[in-house]
Design goal:
This protein is α+β, with helices and mostly antiparallel strands and 633 residues long. The protein has an eight-stranded antiparallel β-sheet, with no helix packed on it. A seven-stranded mixed β-sheet has the order 1-2-3-36-33-32-31, with no helix packed on it. Strands 14-20-28-27-24-22-23 form a seven-stranded antiparallel β-sheet, with no helix packed on it.
């Protein structure tokens, strides 16, 4: 049976438009066939020989007509309400200081009591909605996004757990699954995740609505704020984060936004990249592992234990997932330069993971986490040598970034995405299929090239979250096919590796051999300090100083740790020794200035900050400290 006749059998009679040789399919989109192995069709389909340019030019195009895109959308709405939710509460605050179990978290305390039975409890819920989607926020549970739903279809593109089933998982204990959790500080689920945070609701002049949530991370004294913003006429919502370090000290830098989605056998993950990193930074192959398993298919992960895939290797701004049987999906978009981290977390597809389904929910089923981060990996040191390290939050500095969370409706997958829309492209059996989701009502121009030949150039009216579908027949795999919708900022080329990156994630085994032992110790101590393990860091810095008493890194490290623990005179001795090596050393002058300031020696502090301000790395922080000295703050 020919492909055209096969489509006729699936959809009914085709109505031919003699003016444009364009075929309209009554009854909606043609079902998309999936390759049996679940691989990308561009790699597993058998391709016909390349047809001539004339054949491509005469290929028939098949589209699905849409309703007019000139719809009027209402302004977004925001409301606060109290909902009764079945809750498995936590209790028993631990009277033993957390310094005994995890000094990184002081002054928080842990909770030790968790209930096996539920009780109805009232929870404050902030609801943001427009004509397209609804978003729910829980300001009394860390400010997390509780869930998000497409109104017309009822599809949850952010998994909403209908019970608050607290279990001992987070850094200080209580944690619930689902939604989007905002993590700032050190590796792990944030200490604020189960307790109330500050919040504010606002109607904006542009018709959008916002819910602001935020808190202080007590160990670092850093402040985080997240604006959850819903536009009036878009099928997505944004999270706009601001994280500020108001201290004159370097703090640990860890941020991951942890979202949840349903775990189903028909789920396929679309995470661009050529490899993934383990928590230790060790690089492994992606999307196929060493055993030839295609890992983006959820059901192919039925081996081993829980999975953490930090996918790297391509400069792309999006990732997501799609349920092929249910016909919908979810995605995340942010500038790569702001959020390069893209991680998938999967509970083991065995009883090892199934027990957590029972522990964390009653009726909503298992979930996966799609996490976006400011770093490549949620780093946990291991024995494998690689260049992945802890990161540091510079003194008196701030970070700000924006992320977009969106649904997919009827696209069949995810090949490209932007803030304005998403698109999936499949090419197989000499049929090109393009399905587009615009996030707002828009008129755009669809252009498709087969190599250098333009085979489609038409104006299209797109309705928010309604799938727009085009098929073109007799299209071969070579040369590559490019699909572009400039108004939506979508541009995809089949088989392209133009966005592949060459960043190394392996360290040459001989790299450390030529580095002096004291410098290696300083490096280790710096890593410990960036992880807020100050006691261990001090011991290693002292070991380095014992080997090289005038080692600059060891002296500065000891001066910094003395400043943190209010041993100012001791710290000043180390800083002054470093300044004896180089009087213009910006880092040494900055830590010396902070020590002088703590001792009330303002003239010496002004002198030191004046020199550290000459280095760009310390300029802003030094001017802030100089200003404090000048006004007597």
């Amino acid at each position: 049976m020919s492909r055209l006749n096969e489509l006729r059998s699936q959809t009914g009679a085709l109505i031919e438009d003699p003016n444009f040789r364009r075929y309209h399919v009554p009854g909606g989109p043609v079902p998309m066939t999936r390759p049996t192995r679940g691989h990308d069709p561009l790699r597993v389909c058998a391709w016909p020989p390349f047809l001539s340019a004339l054949a491509v030019a005469l290929a028939c195009a098949l589209t699905v007509p849409l309703s007019a895109s000139s719809q009027t959308r209402s302004a977004a709405r925001i409301s606060e309400e109290t909902r009764v939710i079945d809750t498995y509460p936590f209790s028993e605050p631990d009277p033993i200081p957390i310094l005994v179990s995890d000094a990184r978290l002081y002054p928080y305390h842990a909770f030790r009591g968790y209930s096996a039975t539920s009780e109805p409890r009232e929870w404050k819920v902030v609801k943001l909605e427009n004509d397209l989607i609804e978003v729910f926020v829980l300001p009394e549970a860390g400010g997390k996004v509780w869930g998000a739903v497409v109104k017309e279809t009822g599809h949850e593109f952010i998994y909403r757990n209908e019970v608050m089933k607290f279990r001992d998982i987070a850094l200080r204990g209580p944690w619930t699954s689902g939604g989007i959790e905002f993590n700032f500080g050190v590796i792990g689920h944030t200490p604020a995740t189960a307790t109330p945070v500050d919040y504010l609701v606002r109607e904006n002049p542009d018709g959008s609505v916002s819910c602001f949530v935020g808190a202080m991370d007590l160990p670092s004294r850093t402040h985080w704020r997240v604006e959850i913003r819903l536009p009036p006429d878009r099928g997505y919502f944004e999270t706009r984060a601001l994280w500020y370090n108001p201290t004159p000290l370097e703090q640990p830098y860890y941020n991951w936004m942890t979202a949840a989605a349903f775990a189903q056998d028909d789920l396929e993950l679309y995470v661009p990249g050529g490899s993934y990193l383990e928590h230790s930074g060790r690089e492994r192959p992606w999307p196929e592992d060493e055993a030839g398993r295609f890992l983006p298919l959820y059901r192919n992960n039925r081996f081993g234990g829980h999975k953490s895939y930090h996918v790297v290797g391509e400069l792309n701004d999006f990732f997501g997932g799609y349920y092929h049987d249910d016909g919908y999906g979810w995605g995340h978009w942010a500038r790569y330069e702001e959020m390069p981290g893209q991680k998938m977390w999967l509970w083991a597809l065995s009883r090892q993971g199934g027990v957590w389904e029972d522990l964390l929910t009653d009726t909503d089923g298992q979930y996966v986490e799609f996490q976006a981060g400011r770093l490549f990996v949620q780093y946990s040191p291991g024995e494998h040598e690689n260049p992945v390290t802890q990161a540091a939050f510079d003194p008196l500095s701030a970070s700000a970034w924006t992320e977009t969370w969106f649904p997919l409706e009827g696209t069949g997958g995810l090949s490209d995405a932007s803030r304005e829309g998403a698109m999936h492209v499949e090419l197989g059996d000499s049929v090109l299929r393009v399905v587009v989701n615009a996030f707002g009502d828009v008129t755009d121009t669809l252009r498709i090239w087969a190599g250098e030949l333009l085979i489609e150039n038409s104006v299209v009216d797109l309705v928010a979250l309604e799938p727009f579908e085009v098929m073109i027949f007799h299209v071969a795999s070579d040369p590559p096919v490019r699909v572009q919708l400039p108004g939506l900022d979508l541009d995809y080329t089949t088989g392209s590796r133009d966005r592949a990156l060459s960043r190394p994630f392996e360290t040459d085994p001989s790299a450390w051999a030529g580095i002096p032992e004291a410098d290696r110790l300083v490096y280790q101590a710096r890593e410990l300090a960036k992880g807020r393990r100050y006691g261990e860091a001090r011991a290693v810095f002292e070991e380095a100083a014992g080997q090289e008493p005038w080692n600059r890194g060891a002296l500065l490290g000891l001066a910094d740790l003395a400043l943190r623990s209010a041993r100012y005179e001791e710290g000043l001795e180390h800083a002054r020794r470093a300044l004896q090596l180089d009087t213009y050393d910006a880092a040494a002058n900055f830590v010396a200035g902070n020590l002088y300031r703590a001792l009330g020696r303002d003239m010496d502090a002004r002198d030191a900050f004046g020199w550290s301000a000459r280095a760009v790395a310390f300029r802003a922080a030094s001017y802030v400290r100089l200003g404090e000295v000048m006004v007597g703050a």
